[in-house]
Design a protein that fits this description.
Strand order of the largest sheet: 1-7-4-3-2
Radius of gyration: 32 Å
Helix content: 25-40%
Number of helices: 8
Strand content: 25-35%
Length: 261
């Protein structure tokens, strides 16, 4: 018997479907099992075709199939055409399942690696998280701060009235400008946006986020999450030289701080 995994010849491996259906007689089944010991290809096919008997049983109730019901003699075997059809159907369903799994993994990877917006506090989360979740969030927060730190152009401003401080970092890209902001001394609960204002007066939302009740970057704060600043990454369609300034605005229309570009 062959032990290779290459493409088999039909004469050697054509009984795998019939064996999976349980329609071989004793002599045929014994001969196939002897072959199966040394054939990885057939073993793999047999694993993929597991569960064929329930499908065959379900087809038994359909008119005109001629398929024996469970418990009947296997001497009235399904035709070779029906066996081939069942084998092909199960193989296709297995392939579709594998493709769906691949697409789900790919989509998840795209969200993790190439998401358009990252909003995280340097403290590593909003508190209350423990175990793996907390560790993962903290790692992501460190990565967000590192992305902000890597942007070469940085401008800082503090509003005299609100006392909110923000540093905007920029890097021009082919698609526009990558933008990051470090936000300090902002209290919540509040919802905010970073707005890029072009030299032509046009306005574009770079990113938006929520500020929890304890706030971010609060001087003298007693908790880690309130003490650390918030880092937000986003992007603008403007080229860097097209931006006049940035504004941190609440959803209610209040300007917290303005930063020159």
């Amino acid at each position: 018997m062959q032990g290779s995994v290459g493409s088999p010849s039909p004469s050697e491996h054509e009984t795998v479907g019939a064996y999976a259906l349980g329609i071989l007689d004793d002599a045929e089944a014994t001969a196939f099992e002897s072959h199966l010991v040394g054939c990885e290809w057939c073993a793999q096919q047999l694993d993929e075709l597991a569960g064929m008997e329930p499908m065959l049983a379900a087809l038994a109730d359909l008119p005109g199939t001629g398929t024996p019901a469970i418990g009947e003699s296997l001497s009235a075997r399904p035709s070779p055409r029906l066996v081939d059809k069942l084998v092909d159907e199960v193989s296709e369903r297995r392939a579709q399942k594998r493709r769906r799994s691949f697409f789900l993994v790919a989509a998840a990877a795209a969200l993790i690696v190439g998401g358009p917006l990252t909003v995280l506090a340097a403290s590593g989360g909003d508190g209350g998280s423990t175990g793996v979740q907390a560790g993962s969030t903290k790692s992501a927060a460190v990565t967000t701060k590192a992305a902000f730190d890597a942007l070469p152009t940085k401008v800082t401003a503090t509003d005299d009235a609100t006392k909110v401080s923000a540093t905007v970092a920029m890097l021009e890209k082919g698609w526009g400008t990558e933008v990051g902001v470090e936000l300090k001394n902002v209290t919540g609960p509040e919802k905010c946006s970073l707005i890029a204002v072009g030299k032509d007066g046009k306005r574009e939302t770079v990113s938006s986020w929520s500020v929890p009740e304890w706030g971010y970057g609060i001087p003298g704060a007693t908790t880690e999450q309130a003490k650390n600043p918030l880092y937000v990454m986003g992007g603008a369609a403007f080229k860097a030289n097209e931006i006049d300034h940035f504004e941190v605005m609440t959803f209610g229309g209040k300007k917290l701080v303005e930063i020159d570009a």
